[in-house]
Amino acid sequence: MIALVAGATRGTGRGIAVALGAAGATVYCTGRSTRERRSEMNRPETIEETAELVTAAGGTGIAVQVDHLAPEEVEALAGRVDKEQGRLDVLVNDVWGSDHLWEWSTPVWKHDMDKGFRLLRLAIDTHIISSRYLLPLLIRNEGGLVVEVTDGTWGFNETRYRENVYYDLAKMSVNRLAFAWSNEVRPHGGTAVAITPGFLRSEAMLDNFGVTEDNWREAKVDSAWQVSETPAYVGRGVAAIATDPDKRRWSGKSVESGELAEAYGLTDVDGSRPQVWRYITEVVETGKEADPADYR
User: Fold this and answer.
1) CA separation, residue 128 to residues 54, 68, 121 (Å)
2) 37-46, 210-219, 268-277: which range is least confident on average?
3) Above 80 in pLDDT, residue 55?
4) Contact 292, 217 (CB under 8 A)
5) Which pLDDT score, from 0 to 100, does residue 149 have?
6) I want to staple 115 with a disulfide (CB 3.0 to 4.6 A). Which of 83, 101, 202, 243 is the partner?
């Protein structure tokens, strides 16, 4: 299996890349941050580290520095994969890199417009550019899979306003892109699906809350954090779809990590099965009293 994870530097992208590696895949890990140069996110994680983790998990990790807003770079990437592998079986569009741009719960007339449009370009344009140049390689053989990574399923997002207009539009748009790709790859035997993790214990989130993976429960944050998950959880879900002979049943859908865990009998690294979206809708939004442990 030949896979490419666009935006594999950290968080969900890294979790998916490593899980695909554990399934034996050769994974091209792309992003802007390398050991020589950081992206505007200014985080320490690198694509080389991700590639090494993929290889350690049992696959073959290949780090390629790519700015997915630059069509010529993505076109060159597609050419390299074609030359080296002759095929692409899995494309994961996980580019984001916009944490520093969005202003929490800020109305449009107060939100910095330049930052907002930059966010949209990073969150949406990158996914379209990647698909433009990589889908021709993916549809060459039947059974190809496209994964669009977002925050919140279509069903969740369509009835809730997600913090500000730029973030809301970005995350709803990515769900729609998966539906679009499902229609475009279906005649070629392909599958496309939108996937959202839950409350993610990414490297940046752990840093934001001043905790580590060893003491994450000590973070002073709302109760939904107690139903959070590691990037491996959604990664295992993606790997399960990628290796599923009946993967087409997911095509055009928008699903969350907990749903995939139940469908495939998966767990997070601690053996639990977090269901944070259900916790949010059943407990947080209703004011119901419940033990977060009952949703793990």
Assistant:
1) 25, 9, 10
2) 37-46
3) yes
4) no
5) 98
6) 101
Domain 2-295, CATH homologous superfamily name and number:
NAD(P)-binding Rossmann-like Domain (3.40.50.720)
CB 258, CB 278: distance < 8 Å: yes
User: Comparing C-alpha atoms, which of 199, 196, 195 is closest to residue 247?
Assistant: 195
| 3-state SS string for 18-71 | HHHHHCCCEEEEEECCCCCCCCCCCCCCCHHHHHHHHHHHCCEEEEEECCCCCH
CA atoms within 13 A on the CB side of 277: 18
Round to whole Å and give the CA distance between 88 and 1.
8
* Residue 98, pLDDT score: 81
Q: What is the pTM (predicted TM-score) of this model?
A: 0.95
With CA atoms as reference, report the closest residue to 4 among 66, 73, 90, 67: 90
What's the rounded Cα separation, in Å, for the pair 165 and 38? 28
The residues spanned by each domain of the chain are 2-295
pLDDT digits (tens, 9 = 90+) for 65-80: 999 999 999 999 999 9
